[in-house]
From TrEMBL:
SMART domains: AAA. InterPro entries: AAA+_ATPase, ABC_AA/LPS_Transport, ABC_transporter-like_ATP-bd, ABC_transporter-like_CS, BCA_ABC_TP_C, P-loop_NTPase. One of its GO terms (molecular function) is ATP binding. Coiled coil: none annotated. The lineage of its organism: Bacteria, Pseudomonadati, Pseudomonadota, Alphaproteobacteria, Rhodospirillales. It holds the Pfam family BCA_ABC_TP_C. This is ABC transporter ATP-binding protein.
Length: 272
């Protein structure tokens, strides 16, 4: 498997707290890689560093062998690293299709002078953009909601729209932050299917943080387990579920936080 991302000895401290340390992992090209771990394990901090929202204290993030650690989000976006958020950030007053058409960067139409002197080209770009947005809606089976205000969508539909927004870019690596949070089981199934199709048919590589272990088991291979800021183990979910060190990490985490049953989180049918 060729690597798309190689993280080497990554660390991030907040004052005296080492949120991530000695963290090394690979994201293979064309994989759907999962990232799990108890609360406070450092998953979001790691995502923030890959997406450029946080500058690492030390270590490397190699994207196709180029060190991208510390590059700003817009530079990473241009390279095809796209992050979607736990809370979808649609423009509520705009329609679904308008939300999609907003995404492409640096269109000719956004440059005032160009819009005066290159009117034909601007029109052509806009038509191309609209056609792409229509095909995204078709792919996500959201065409019936094309002219709906995005603010009126359900939580799960907003997540599909968020996935659609990544499809309007030249995404190479999509970082999905808890796609399953707050989504009903039917839409969860649709979302999972879309991720699989984007992976299979469009060659997107995904890295997913998720507390729903069934969703992780369904989608991800490999799965990395983070605990106390570093990689505890990685492998297939069915092996990870049986790993006593993983159970131990979750038991420790749950004792400090929610107090829920760590065993049931990891067993089939349980969410963290
Ligand atoms: N901006 C920050 N300033 C100070 N401490 C932070 C900051 N962000 C995260 N931390 C701390 O870093 C540690 C790792 O947090 P992080 O959010 O990365 O964990 P997580 O695995 O994503 O947890 P969860 O599953 O609960 O979202 C925690 O102890 C957290 O309190």
């Amino acid at each position: 498997m060729r690597r798309l991302i190689a993280i080497r000895n990554l660390a991030k401290s907040f004052g005296g707290l080492q949120a991530v340390h000695d963290c090394s992992l690979d994201i293979g090209r064309g994989t759907i890689t999962g990232l799990i771990g108890p609360n406070g394990a450092g998953k979001t901090t790691l995502f923030n560093m890959i997406a450029g929202a946080l500058r690492p204290t030390s270590g490397q993030i190699l994207f196709e062998d180029r060190d991208i650690a510390g590059l700003p989000p817009h530079a990473l976006f241009r390279m095809g690293i796209v992050r979607t958020f736990q809370i979808p950030h649609e423009f509520a007053e705009m329609t679904v299709i308008e939300n999609l058409m907003l995404v492409p960067q640096a269109q000719t139409g956004e440059r005032l002078l160009a819009s005066w002197v290159q009117w034909g080209r601007v029109r052509a770009e806009e038509e191309e953009n609209r056609a792409r947005a229509e095909s995204v809606l078709d792919f996500l089976q959201l065409t019936r909601l094309r002219d709906e205000r995005a603010g009126n969508l359900s939580g799960g539909q907003k997540k599909l729209l968020e996935l659609g927004r990544t499809m309007m870019t030249e995404a190479r690596l999509v970082l999905l932050d808890e796609p399953g949070a707050g989504v009903n089981p039917t839409l969860m199934g649709e979302l999972a299917e879309m991720v699989q199709r984007l992976n299979r048919e469009r060659g997107y590589t995904f890295c997913i943080i998720e507390h729903d272990m069934d969703l992780i088991a369904r989608l991800c291979d490999p799965v990395y387990v983070l605990a106390e800021g570093t990689v505890l183990t990685h492998g297939r979910m069915e092996d990870i579920r049986r790993d006593p060190r993983v159970l131990e990490a979750y038991l420790g985490g749950s004792a400090e936080t929610a107090g829920s049953s760590a065993g049931s989180r990891l067993s089939a049918g349980g969410a963290a």
